[in-house]
Amino acid sequence: MPDEWQETARLVSLEEADLPAGRHTFHKEALMTFIHQSDAAANTPTPDKRRRFLRPMFVLPAAACSLAVVAAGLVTLTGSSSNSPTAQPALIAQVGTSTSQGVPQLLNRIALAATKKPVASVGEGQYIYIESKFGGTYERTVDDKTTVASDGINRRQIWLSGDGTKGWLIDPTNTPADGESIDRINEKGASEPGRLNAPTHDYLATLPTDADTLLAKIYKETKGMGNNPDQQAFTTIGDLLNESLAPADLNTALFKAAAKVPGVVQVQDAVDAAGRHGVAVARLDETSGARTEMIFNAETYTYLGERTIQVRPHGGDSGKIEPGTILFTSAITARQVVDDLKEVTSSRA
């Protein structure tokens, strides 16, 4: 219904997997993930529709599904001029040159750097605080006119308990100005356990740290998701690096696993949502023509953020999605353990 458009447009958010959340870069595989998990709903807990994670799958209520048009990896948001959110120009960047040369060596250096970086533990009653910047581009239809737009670059803050049962989110595109409580309570009122595409800090500690074993698990548990198994595996690895605080040995295993995914390349110069330049490990989705890039500091190999950029002509439903369009971009600017919800530290990621 027209009076539902604004609300449901905002519910096309990120939940916890295929498309990392807050993401207004609406990739086609995210919706495919939603459909896949809906088919398995009898055996899988239903995620709380309030949850919004920075790079996950869609949480689409039935009303929203009627407003979503999947095309070119984007969702077209439909509404009227009186109730649609204010839009900004599409996010555009130069498409960096990619090469398959030196990828294993680069990921080995990244993995080695990860082993040397201490990761704080999360104690009883403590929270993981992650601050980021994010933005994305989407097709927007108002009064039968379709344009390519964005919500600009926004600041996002999230606090999560180790078991994921308590949290707080401040996201100007999804929550009130002072934020809102988030949890893992499903529609039956039960606590939803962590899983690969909806991990908690405690769940991450249970994942295998052998790269081959970890990659096999990723392929098995994401079977049928995304446009193809290799792209979905690469996307899942990126999701596990975003709004999380994984053990150092798991980070190392993730980087080694990424090196084993076919089609992975490196991009010498990629820019995150905070404007920081770095080297990227990337993979092109042959179906959508969009390239997902995990960006690292070129000297310290610290994870900076992620970007999905259109590199091949596709057009989308409107025919206006051109190479260089940034479908999604993020930058982790703080990642700390704090003692209270809504506590902000001065330390940076």
Brief overview, please?
The chain is of the alpha+beta class and 349 residues long. It has helices spanning 5-11, 28-39, 62-65, 103-115, 201-204, 211-221, 229-241, 248-258, and strands at 70-71, 74-79, 88-89, 98-99, 127-142, 145-150, 154-161, 167-170, 180-182, 264-271, 277-285, 290-296, 303-310, 326-338. The chain starts with a helix and ends in an 11-residue tail after the last strand.
Which terms summarize this structure?
14-stranded mixed sheet, 8 helices, 349 residues, 27% strand, alpha+beta
Q: Order of helices and strands, N to C?
A: HHHEEEEHEEEEEHHHHEEEEE
Low-confidence stretches: 1-85
Number of strands: 14
Helix share of residues? 10-25%
Count of alpha/pi helices: 8
Q: What structural category do the secondary elements indicate?
A: alpha+beta
Whole-angstrom Rg: 19 Å
Largest sheet: 14 strands, mixed
Which shape, going by the Cα principal axes?
globular
Mean pLDDT: 78
Straight-line N-to-C gap: 43 Å
Q: How much strand?
A: 25-35%
